[in-house]
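re the bet — no i am not wrong, look at it urself. input seq straight from the record:
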Amino acid sequence: MPAQTDFPLIFEELKAILKPYSAKFTVKEDATDGYSLEGPYSQKWKKELFFGAAQIKKNYVSFYLMPVYMYPELLKDISPELRKHMQGKSCFNFKKVEPELFMELAELAKKGCDRFREEA
């Protein structure tokens, strides 16, 4: 069982990756165990688009980044270490603080934001 006492710290680190985009997107949740951002209405998709989130779960902390689902080519250069944390097409799960991987996620979020705003 993971050390769940670390989960709030992991969550804050992952939330910090998303926080810079709060000026560009709408904060839909900002709680002690969840933070999520939604994009503006998209003419292309005919709805508001989910951008990303961080959530504390029972056995890990999840980081969701929808642009990698919409544009899977964004994942072509991620490290094997980060890929090991993927669950599904747009979710990354963490049980401990991993600064190098969080930096890589931050860069992925930036690329995702740029692409998301260009095309969505």
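see?? The chain has a mean pLDDT of 92. told u. also The chain has one domain: 4-113. so pay up
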